[in-house]
Amino acid sequence: MDFDILVKQRDGWVSQSHVSNLKSEISHLSFDGTVKRGSATCPCCGYTTPVASVRVQLKKRRGGAHDARLYAVVTMRVGEQGRLYRQPTNADRDAVRRTADELKRQQSKSRRNPVGRGLSLVPDELILPNELRRISVPLYGMACWGDLFAPRQALALATLARLVRESRDQLRREHEAVLADAVGTCLGLVVGRQSEFQSSLVTWTAGGEFAGRTFVRQALGMVWDFCETNLWADASGNWDGATDWVARVVAQEAAAHSSEGHVEQASATQHPLPDDSAVAIVTDPPYYDAVPYAYLSDFFFVWQKRILNDTHPNLSREDCVPKDAEIVVDRPHQLSKSNKGIAFYECELQKAFAECRRVLRPDGVCTIVFASKTTSSWEAILKAVVDAGWTITGSWPIDTERGSRMAAQGQARLASSVHLVCRPREDASGAVTDSVGEWRDVLSELPQRIHEWMPRLAAEGVVGADAIFACLGPALEIFSRYRRVEKANGETATLREYLEFVWAAVSTEALSSIFKDADAAGLEPDARLTVMWLWTLGGGAAVDGKQQIVEGEGEESESPPTTSRLPSTGFMLEYDAARKIAQGLGIHLEQSDSIVEVKGDKARLLPVSERTRHLFGKDEDGRMKAERGKRKKQIKQRSLFEELDEVEAEAENVVAGELKPQAGETVLDRVHQSMILFAAGRSEALRRFLVDDGADTDARF
Predict the structure, then answer these.
(1) HEC assignment per residue over 377-419
(2) Between 311 and 544, where is the model more confident?
(3) Which of 59, 606, 626, 699 is the most core-located residue (most Cβ within 10 A)?
């Protein structure tokens, strides 16, 4: 087994995890993965080739898809469950070789007779690499889009493209051109969907035993072993499945709309509609650099040119999807003219919303769909909306995100897309109103507006991060009804300043709603912050009797409810969101290091188990401070028994061989101390703590 078999493997459906089923001579080896951070490890000898060398080798082979080695074939018997995995035969290898030869023959022929307007048989347009664009395949030699496809995949897609063109031409001879072009366009979309299942970036999903797809995430990264799907098999990724998807969409749209529509490509900053002509506008703007829409679209665009260039001639006017005018934050690259920073994004976004207001009737409505969880994105889009002359009259969270896409537990991800409802801030003549608001009046109206909305949202099941952003609409209606808001000294109040007060009002109201029948005013800052933090995340949830533990990137693992271990990962929030929540409660996040850990742009609420030493040991001794100052190698999380045993060995307050904790300074500390003693099975120590020492006599506890 050489390096080739580790980097790009292929055919039928392939999975590296099934090598042990196919190679009995190496079945004793443990397959924890052969590639990590781009470095490849041989499962036989254990030698690791560093990522730099891997890239050098693959660049010589244009990414490895063209000469990848077939090492497994997956089959399914009719009437039986599951898949069968077998080694490739000479006939299988011969089929791969003959396909590569046929592709070369057809490519040579197409050079003499190009497709459409001088296009190559297989896309040879360059992939524009850019670190910020999340397209890393050029680092491994995939310089043009055709490099993403193995010979059988490229030949299949090129053949489908030719057949669609021929079918359209035949329909034109027998029927009206409009019908022929419509059918050709729909078939072109089918081929486009098929291309996502026919690339060397498609992996085999071993868990469900099916082929994946290219865009598992909104990026194009290197895949080390891939699968080729049979277009005509009764399985995922086949032609029938792609056709069915497009047909269902066409049928749904035909039944839903009785009138004809009109589609036109235009820049959002230069709309072709005349003034005051649109009744409604719906838009889903980009979020800074979150998704490289234009760059990723080239994957489909290069094939659509080859299919529909006669039907839609404008497709072949560009080598790739236009990118210079796209309203995103972009990092410059030698192959791209783009150099678009935050200032460009925010300025162009404001122009786009101003253009929307120009074409909308005075009594029209605009809906902006937004689902970003970063406060900076929200501030940017809200500022652009207000500066463009809109009044925000509402914001409604609508469930649009798939549960499988969510890393909701432990991270403040929106479960919904928030739909901002906006109306033009215009007078009867259509001019933007020039009213000026008083800062004092705006701030005095804000708490009452939030108080009216929070119970309404809670009654509809909208809590946490969704509720926070859902409150932005009614809160901003107060501010955005004016062209500007002035303070008593004549200075203009900025939207950013106002949003700080909005967060404070939301935090205060949310805390009041959580403690409906209790007075939370007496709780110390650490308890108030913890409650709001967990509320923002939606709270911890038990799944099938097991505690769900959340890793930093949203991965989930399960631990049985034992008494020896508590969740050890904590709960993540974007730092700026955490800071604003804390600020709204009158708390300084930087002074809350006993319950919060801040690293970069993330803040983590420490789980109870990580507070053991702080709650039972000498956390503020010089020894502990010195330990905290050192960069220690990360070690495996210890159990509560081990942690408490170590603390007891160092402590002086031990009675009858068991730790006697000193009551914590705050209510939260005392609750956490009780939780740790209970989870560790220290019932006698817990009884003394609660009864003898009277920790539970406080009504707040």
Answers:
(1) HHHHHHHHHHHCCEEEEEEEEECCCCHHHCCCCCCCCCCCEEE
(2) 311
(3) 606
Distance CA 224, CA 202 (A): 10
- Distance of alpha carbon 445 from alpha carbon 580, whole angstroms: 20
Maximum pairwise Cα distance, the chain? 98
* Residue 30 binned pLDDT confidence (cut-offs 50, 70, 90): very low
Percent of the chain whose pLDDT exceeds 90: 23
Quote the CA–CA distance of 426 and 389 in Å, as a whole number.
8
Q: Note whether 129 and 220 are within 8 A (CB).
A: no
pLDDT at 642 over 70: no
Measure Cα distances from 111 to 6, 24, 40, 121, 159 in Å. 34, 46, 37, 8, 16
CB atoms within 10 A of CB 601: 10
Distance between alpha carbon 692 and the CA centroid of its chain, in Å?
A: 51
Higher pLDDT, 587 or 198: 198
Residue 18 has pLDDT above 70, yes or no: no
Element of type H or E holding 98: helix 90-112
Of the pLDDT bands very low, low, confident and very high (cuts 50, 70, 90), residue 698 is: confident
Check whether 97 has a pLDDT greater than 50. yes
**Residue 485: per-residue pLDDT:** 92
pLDDT (0 to 100) of residue 102: 94
Q: How crowded is residue 416: how many other Cβ atoms within 10 Å of its Cβ?
A: 17
Q: What angle do CA 388, 413, 213 make, to 5 degrees?
A: 100
What is the C-alpha separation between 158 and 152, in angstroms, rounded?
Answer: 10
Taking CA atoms, 402 is separated from 360, 398, 407, 456, 468, in Å, by 32, 12, 10, 24, 20
- pLDDT above 90 for 237: no
Listed in sequence order, the residues at least 6 apart from 48 whose beta carbon sits closer than 8 Å to its beta carbon are 39, 40, 41, 42
pTM summary value: 0.72
| Residues ≥6 apart with Cβ < 8 Å to 674 | 686, 689, 690, 695
Which SS3 state, helix, strand or coil, does residue 282 take? Answer: strand
Rounded distance between C-alpha atoms, residue 177 and residue 180, angstroms: 5
Contact 6, 42 (CB under 8 A): yes
Structure tokens of 149? 């496809």
Q: Is 187 exposed, middle or buried (0-12, 13-18, 19+ CB in 10 A)?
A: buried
d(CA 42, CA 407): 33
Query: Cα–Cα distance between 616 and 669 in angstroms, integer?
Result: 10
Interacting residues of 30 by C-beta distance below 8 A, sequence separation 6+: none
Amino acid at 673: Q
How far apart are alpha carbons 536 and 514 in whole angstroms?
11
CA distance 486 to 465: 30
In angstroms, the CA 441 to CA 420 distance is 24
Q: How many residues does the chain have?
A: 701
Residues 197, 236: contact at Cβ < 8 Å?
yes
Q: Which residue has the tokens 């502990």?
A: 624
CA 466/CA 416 separation, integer angstroms: 7
What does the domain layout of the chain look like in residue ranges?
A: 3-254+279-317, 341-606, 611-627+638-701
CA distances from 412 to 376, 463, 534 (A): 14, 11, 10
- Each residue of 119-165: pLDDT tens digit? 899 999 998 766 555 888 888 889 999 999 999 999 999 999 999 99
**What number of other Cβ atoms are within 10 A of residue 178's Cβ?**
9
